[in-house]
Amino acid sequence: MPGITGGEVAARIREIRPGTKVLFVSGYPEDAIGRKRLIDDSVPFLGKPFTPNELRKKIREILSP
After folding, report:
1. Total domain count for the chain?
2. Distance between CA 59 and CA 57 in Å, rounded?
3. 1 in a domain, yes or no?
């Protein structure tokens, strides 16, 4: 996204609606995301490529109480 990172978008959404669940999906490896500080550790991450089952499991993990 030009001019803003996904982590910044997530932070802004959480400012407006605290408690909103966010899943960050990227083609970058997770360690590269951390090194570049694109997201913080509180944002769940799913690296591409992923299967529909992996996506389903991750969403369930995020949404379960």
Report:
1. 1
2. 6
3. no
